[in-house]
Amino acid sequence: MRDVAIVAFSQTDHVRSSEEVSEVEMLMPVLHDVLGRTGLRTGDIGFTCSGSCDYLAGRAFSFTMALDGVGAWPPIPESHVEMDGAWALYEAWVKLLTGEADTALVYAYGKSSPGSVRDVLTRQLDPYYLAPLWPDSVALAALQAQALIDSGETDEPALAAIAERSRTAAEGNPHAQLRGPRPQGGYVVRPLRTGDCPPVGDGAAAVVLAAGDRARELCPRPAWIRGMDHRVEPHALGVRDLTDSPSTRLAAERAGVHERPVDTAELHAPFTSQEVVLRKALRLGDSVAVNPSGGALAANPVMAAGLIRVGEAAAAVHRGASGRALAHATSGPCLQQNLVAVLEGEPHAR
Amino acid sequence: MPAKEPVAVVGVGQTKHVAARRDVSIAGLVREAARRALDDAGLGWAGIDAVVIGKAPDFFEGVMMPELYLADALGAVGKPLMRVHTAGSVGGSTALVAAGLVAARVHRTVLTLAFEKQSESNAMWGLSLPVPFQQPLLAGAGGFFAPHVRAYIRRSGAPGTVGCLVAYKDRRNALRNPYAHLHEHDVTLEKVRSSPMLWDPIRYSETCPSSDGACAMVLADRAGAARAPHPPAWVHGGAMRSEPTLFAGKDFVSPQAGKDCAADVYRQAGITDPRREIDAVEMYVPFSWYEPMWLENLGFAAEGEGWKLTESGVTELDGELPVNPSGGVLSTNPIGASGMIRFAEAALQVRGRAGAHQVAGARKALGHAYGGGSQFFSMWLVGAEPPEA
């Protein structure tokens, strides 16, 4: 398999509301920054792929205007997934593996501020049986959290400790929306308290991928993608064991996570209880630094938060803070769909 | 660098496209097309390694990221599932993303599917949500594209009757395609010509319908092709190109992204004279005049000459270069699936499995899709023989 690496990562400062800027205006500085880190220009990029969702913008074809911000002239090979940007990165990775391109630009963005994201996310549920009841994302996550507590896998103090650890870690992340310890607060939906839930916010992120020697030219310490896989589970919560994540486990196995120990894991766990599920599925020991960026509990721009996990893991490799990092992204209610990537700082022996 | 794995289309399935499939859910609709593609490929659900699904905006059905809800219906549980969205070109882009998984040897057998169930909502409404500080699309897609058609007529000097010829041809071709939405048994050229004017110069009979429908394909590697019960179609080239929506230098009549995309596909496939070397074209023609426009954009005719091919009958089913033997988008338009139907119909032609709309002896065929304000393009060229190593 061809060696492909993440060579640059950039993100916005994530904020509760960015009503003064459009999606394109929010994205443009990130695109300029990530390209600036490599010295590449739009015309040098072999393939461009983005992730976003019309339902956040509240209008059809919302991604078309973002493309104008990329500056797609002369015309570029380009694609878009209506998913978190982590899956756009997956599409770009496959493109580079085919040899059809040597570099790729991947970006994602989401503005939750124009509406109520809890309500908006109900629209991704089964449209005939579930969506008409408007069960929101916090209520569904609360079902999962209660199932974990009932099965003895965690308790409320343990969840509070996850929140505390994440937001303390975010003190070192200038882009995070919630930095530093917060009061756990009252119940939003029992057993989840304010502190167990992610902030609602707007943000964007971008990465540059490159293959082989091109990656070495563009980055002193490329974050090589050793494996990447993603899996989906049934949609209906009633047919899933909410205390487990078999799709994460399978994706991790296929991505080669367990071939050698990882030292860092960036997990896309918007709710504290979901970190409990993911740690178990990924068999992460206490020696692994989980979410040193603060994770989704510190900043959760919908559609970009997964790509940010991959970007943060890559950035840890770039600066030498990690030798082998795991990145995870999720989509759908209660961790329905999960992606796992493994990034390494050195060329591995073949 | 190792050569890419050759990609074969070993299964194709469609629903009968109609205005409203009230008898099935969205899940039921996609399942029907997928099941037919699996049957054609001689495979069960367990034979599929990954699923790549595409459709146009989520607002068209009112379901956000429907792939999550459709995971069960598509047999995707425990597998990778991706959702592509590149506006009207999405059906083609989705097939290309799926083909990439096989070409990169990430997966060996991939199910790809695109759908639109327009009766669930209202596509005109879905396209008309107000956007601050941006030019509204106005009166649906026809209002956006009509000025560009007028520009083409002015530039090329084409007689005003050419659009009607295209519509008359495509609607007659659709009568041979059991899956086509519009089966106008009493169609005549005079009826097309006298249909009401909607967006000058586009008449009612020169526009596409709104359809419910799905299209699926099973893509496989060389070993999968060898096991397939029916002849495969081989992917000889595929590409996507995008350009900005609105800018001063944009040529809406013949966008550069379309030209570049076609040139890339021909280069990959070793095509130097598309007019002579390609036997059938499934082209994304939602408004009749886009046939002569795209004939030029795709390199089948010189600039300003596309309408002459249409007028002289070259693009008829029995012409030298049949365009849209299936009846095309003018006869069937489940928007998100329309691009994939073009790709799939091109595959059916070179597999010799197009039934009553088969182009005799078709060995190489082009599938073409575009989207947005003519800024997204995706195309593939398929052949009856495997590509040369």
UniProtKB/TrEMBL annotation, chain A:
- Start and end residues of each stretch annotated as Disordered: 168-189
Q: Which residues are the signal sequence here?
A: none
Which SUPFAM superfamilies does this one have?
A: Thiolase-like (SSF53901)
UniProt superkingdom: Bacteria
Protein's recorded name:
Lipid-transfer protein
Automatic annotation (TrEMBL), chain B:
Instruction: Please give the InterPro entries that the UniProt record associates with this protein.
Output: Thiolase (IPR002155), Thiolase-like (IPR016039), Thiolase_C_2 (IPR055140)
Q: Output this protein's name.
A: Thiolase domain-containing protein
CDD domains, sorted:
SCP-x_thiolase (cd00829)
Which Gene3D superfamilies does the UniProt record give? 3.40.47.10
Stretches assigned to the Thiolase C-terminal domain: 244-373
Write down the NCBIfam families for this protein, in alphabetical order.
PRK08313.1
- A Pfam entry, by short name: Thiolase_C_1
Q: Please list the coiled coil stretches.
A: none
Q: Which top-level group of life is the source organism from?
A: Bacteria
Q: Which GO terms describe its molecular function?
A: acyltransferase activity, transferring groups other than amino-acyl groups
